[in-house]
Amino acid sequence: ELSQDDLVLITTVAVIIMLISGIYLLMALVCKTNRKINIVALIVFAIALNFMFGVAPKLIDQKLNTVTPHQFPELLEQTKLLHQKSFIADLHADSLMWFKRDLLIKNEHGHVDIPRLIEGHIGLQVFTIVTQVPPNMNFDSNAAPTLLKDIITRKAVFEQWGFDTLTSLAARTTAQIQRLYTFSSESNGSLRVINTKQDLQEFLKLRKQDNSVVSAILGIEGLHALDNKLENVDLFWNLGIRQAALTHFFDNTLGGSAHGTEKSGITPFGRKVLQRMEELGMVIDLAHNSEDLVRDIIDIATTPLISSHTGVYSVCPSPRNLKDYQLQAIADSGGVVGVAFFKPAQCGELFESIINTIVYLRDLIGVDHIAFGSDADGSVDMPFDVTGYVHITDALLRRGFTEEDVDKIMGLNVVKLYQKMLPDQ
Question: Which has more pLDDT, 372 or 46?
Answer without folding.
Answer: 372
